[in-house]
Amino acid sequence: MIGFIGLGIMGRPMAKNLIKAGHKLIVYDKVADISEFTALGAEIAKSNKEVAQKSEIIITMLPNSPHVKEAVLGAGGVIEGAKSGSILVDMSSIAPKASQEICAALKEKGITMIDAPVSGGEPKAIDGSLAIMAGGDKVAFEKVKPILEKMGSSVILVGGIGSGNVTKLANQIIVALNIAAVSEAFTLAAKAGVEPEAVFNAIKGGLAGSTVMNAKVPMILDGNFKPGFRIELHIKDLQNALDTAHELNVPIQLTASVMEVLQALKVDGFAANDHSAIVRYYEKLAKKEVRK
Length: 292
Ligand code: NAD
Description:
Blueprint: E1 2-5, H1 11-20, E2 25-28, H2 36-39, E3 43-44, H3 48-53, E4 57-60, H4 65-73, H5 78-81, E5 87-90, H6 96-107, E6 112-115, E7 118-119, H7 121-127, E8 130-136, H8 138-148, E9 152-159, H9 163-191, H10 196-203, H11 211-222, H12 231-247, H13 253-267, H14 278-286
Helix pairs in contact: 1-7, 4-6, 9-11, 9-12, 9-14, 12-13
Bound molecules: nicotinamide-adenine-dinucleotide (NAD).
Nicotinamide-adenine-dinucleotide is lined by residues 5-11, 28-32, 48, 61-63, 67, 70-71, 92-93, 118-119, 121-122, 228-229, 233.
């Protein structure tokens, strides 16, 4: 049996893909209504502990380090129910240091942990084509890899525990800076009187083109900022990136700058918007919207 904890925007479709692939699941979410999983043949647990008691592999997909610590190490948590020999695969994007701390606590009980955050967002979670970057014990990784392959089209072990999340921080820096660059450039083009859609079509096949541009510009042109990936989650990731970088004596100036853009958007009430709403910051300054 596979346990799945945290059935939000990402966890829900990921768990559904495991069910579709024929796995037996026991699921739990502290807040979200997950009653639809009964009809899909999954068991619904009453606690994180119960999930761990009934499964050999436990997957978590939670917002941030404190949530994973609570669900795994807190009262009624995974650590209270998990059998020695079981494997925890944390697919949340959290601080690498937190992964290492949780892993060490679990090790004392004979439980192995892999950190395996994902990239690709809700659409790729739905079609099972996430990019999964894992860290941890190689033997445990090989055991869970076939399961991860039901949720992702790329599953790569990058190093020891925490290195999956280091890789994810690198990913999140690149995505945030890319959206900011696209937003700044498209605001300039729109204010100069050039159709933003024409700009997109003209440059998407050249060196400036990117997966980020292809995914986010159509949303910006439609003024559709429904998440997707919420600004508040990107603030969380950049905070983890800044903390980790400063602990390692690595100045990350561009990340710090985009962090302040995200903070301004939060003040303006856009924390629950998709991160493509970064464009709103530039639109406000330039007094010009980037729309079709
Ligand atoms: P979400 O907020 O939609 O889902 C998280 C779920 O965890 C919620 O349903 C919440 O009720 C549950 N939860 C919180 N604490 C819990 C606890 N102690 N026990 C049990 N359940 C608990 O978030 P999401 O968008 O699905 O993101 C999950 C993770 O994946 C985050 O770390 C995020 O950064 C990462 N991620 C998200 C995306 C995206 O596009 N949304 C893309 C890649 C990675």
